[in-house]
Design goal:
With about 180 residues, the chain is α+β, with helices and mostly antiparallel strands. The protein is about 20% helix and about 35% strand. The protein folds into two domains: about 1-70, 2,3-Dihydroxybiphenyl 1,2-Dioxygenase, domain 1; about 80-178, 2,3-Dihydroxybiphenyl 1,2-Dioxygenase, domain 1 (Roll), CATH 3.10.180. The strands form two sheets. The chain has a five-stranded mixed β-sheet with strand order 5-8-7-6-9, with helices on one face. A four-stranded mixed β-sheet has the order 1-4-3-2, with helices on one face.
Length: about 180
């Protein structure tokens, strides 16, 4: 079953909106402003269409009960590396993935690209610190891979695979070759 939406808090609404519309290519489809529970403050809820009927949303919080000390990143403030908790969006083809990489590069973003063999991904962080990814899954999973996954899920010492082939793509100016 596909997800409907995921929601996160934002520490910088303007930077978040700019990133998710211009850098990610998502469309803002709904904004709701309402009191927060307990009627001590209010919040804006921004909803972006990510494609295929799925969405991502961001809370812009204005509530003295919540305060300003909360963390918006999804991993590092919890003590985990940034790559642990992240959100991955679908890039349906490698051409689409490379077009999205070019948009990031032309926006001044350094991009990590990794061929994981079962998918190819590009990575960056959003203005709040969470890692975001576009992923293009190239093959379908065979019956053998699915059976192996079932065996490995509870294996206390699974065989280790490589991390894949990675490359870093530096920012480029518009019109330059990538």
């Amino acid at each position: 079953m596909a997800f409907h939406h995921v929601a996160y808090g934002t520490r910088d609404l303007t930077a978040t909106h700019e990133f998710y519309t211009r850098r990610m290519g998502f469309r803002l489809v709904k904004v709701v402003a309402a009191p927060t529970p307990g009627d001590r403050g209010w919040a804006k809820y921004l909803v972006y269409d990510t494609g295929n009927g799925q969405m991502i949303a961001f809370w812009d919080l204005h509530d003295p009960q919540i305060g300003d000390d909360w963390k918006a990143d999804h991993a590092q403030s919890l003590g985990a590396p940034e790559w642990v908790n992240h959100v991955a969006f679908d890039a349906p083809t490698l051409d689409d993935l490379h077009a999205r990489r070019k948009i990031w590069q032309e926006s001044g973003i350094r991009v990590l690209e990794v061929d994981h063999e079962w998918c190819t991904s590009i990575y960056t962080t959003d203005p709040n610190g969470p890692l975001v990814e576009f992923c293009c899954t190239t093959p379908s999973f065979s019956a053998e891979e699915i059976a192996a996954a079932s065996r490995l899920v509870h294996d206390p010492a699974p065989p280790l695979e490589g991390l894949g082939t990675s490359s870093v793509h530096e920012p480029i100016t518009a019109g330059a070759a990538s």
